[in-house]
Write a structure and sequence with these properties.
The chain has six helices and no strands. It has 134 residues and is an all-alpha fold.
Length: 134
């Protein structure tokens, strides 16, 4: 995998996380284009991307997160993974970090509000970088 791509994806995740946190809306074409670039540059990881998409779609249908942007970002990160054990760890991190994030947001806001979920993916990606999974 290309080392510079790891850092570009991190920068992209930081930018879209801030936009999602502040506005709760992202330009869909921007995410789709970046997803295409990551998939194109990691053709060996196509299986992980496909599995990431399936898991993301399942979580979307279960209302774990509520946006198509979340599906795209989860799939994009899955394209960056290289082994099955790292992929399974990724799924566990999504479940754990997502649950903690939702609890903290609901506790802090004290009212029913839509949760910006893209910052969770940024934290997960940083965790995977620190563990050497990306």
């Amino acid at each position: 995998m290309v080392d510079w791509l790891i850092w570009i994806v991190l920068g992209f995740l930081m930018i879209i996380s801030l936009i999602d946190w502040k506005f709760r809306v992202l330009p869909s074409v921007m995410l789709t284009a970046f997803l295409f670039v990551v998939a194109f540059l990691n053709p060996a990881n196509l299986w992980f991307g496909a599995m990431g998409f399936i898991v993301a779609w399942m979580l979307y249908e279960l209302d774990y997160f509520s946006g198509v942007a979340d599906i795209k970002v989860m799939t994009m990160i899955a394209f960056m993974l290289s082994t099955t054990s790292i992929f399974l760890g990724y799924i566990l991190l999504v479940a754990f970090f997502g649950f903690v994030w939702k609890v903290l947001i609901k506790w802090r806001m004290k009212k029913e509000t839509e949760v910006a979920f893209l910052p969770v993916f940024m934290f997960i990606y940083i965790t995977l970088m620190m563990l050497g999974g990306v």
